[in-house]
């Protein structure tokens, strides 16, 4: 869970609350987990789902929640993947339509929250574990995000690095770390464990929460220990 303070104490915000509660969940198939999703939505403002496994044939009526707008970016070919934002209806936002695509199999989706003192973007990523980006591809992504103002960048990076509590460092993790330093991003969950490999009995930290420096001080976070079947 991530809390974002949306007020700078010097202006009147058009949101009724000054703190947005947001959850990132790598749900690994959203349709059979709709009861869990409904329960989550009772106490939060924005839910970001990765690996929704929804497809273009999934009707809106099959994935609909009262009081929330659903923004989906489904995988158009093959199975798996997919990103969705579930946003409480009192929150004004625009969908970001010009996100970079440094790799054809990399999935990105984003929104910008507009009815608060400090408008900011929330961008989610899903990088499949068998997709590997070169340094220049990671750089093109972070460079673009760094140029778009206040940004929260979160999702399933599938990038391992001992710096953020993984048991190994791979090429994607090394490139991501280089980009954090080069483009001045803050990683908030350095010491958490966000992924459980039940088959191997191993924990890792590949679901990450980054932000630009100018919004970092407004963010608090925690990791729920209940995997909820994902």
Automatic annotation (TrEMBL):
Residues 121-230 form the Endonuclease/exonuclease/phosphatase domain. One of its GO terms (molecular function) is catalytic activity. Signal peptide: none annotated. SUPFAM superfamilies: DNase I-like (SSF56219). Pfam families: Exo_endo_phos_2. InterPro entries: Endo/exonu/phosph_ase_sf, Endo/exonuclease/phosphatase. This is Endonuclease/exonuclease/phosphatase domain-containing protein. It comes from Photinus pyralis (Common eastern firefly).
């Amino acid at each position: 869970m991530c809390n974002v303070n949306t007020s700078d104490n010097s202006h009147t915000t058009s949101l009724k609350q000054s703190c947005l509660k947001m959850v990132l969940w790598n749900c690994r198939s959203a349709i059979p987990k709709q009861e869990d999703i409904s329960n989550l939505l009772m106490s939060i403002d924005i839910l970001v789902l990765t690996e929704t496994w929804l497809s273009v044939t999934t009707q809106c009526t099959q994935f609909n929640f009262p009081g929330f707008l659903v923004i989906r970016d489904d995988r158009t070919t093959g199975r798996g993947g997919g990103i969705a934002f579930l946003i409480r209806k009192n929150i004004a936002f625009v969908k970001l339509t010009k996100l970079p695509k440094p790799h054809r199999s990399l999935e990105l989706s984003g929104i910008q929250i507009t009815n608060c003192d400090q408008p900011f973007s929330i961008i989610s990523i899903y990088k499949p574990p068998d997709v590997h980006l070169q340094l220049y591809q990671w750089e093109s992504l972070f460079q673009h995000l760094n140029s778009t103002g206040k940004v929260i960048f979160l999702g399933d990076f599938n990038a391992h690095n001992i710096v953020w509590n993984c048991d190994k460092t791979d090429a994607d993790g090394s490139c991501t770390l280089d980009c954090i330093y080069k483009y001045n991003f803050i990683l908030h969950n350095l010491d958490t464990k966000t992924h459980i490999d039940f088959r191997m009995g191993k924990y890792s930290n590949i679901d990450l929460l980054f932000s630009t420096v100018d919004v970092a001080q407004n963010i608090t976070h925690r990791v729920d220990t209940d995997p909820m079947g994902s």
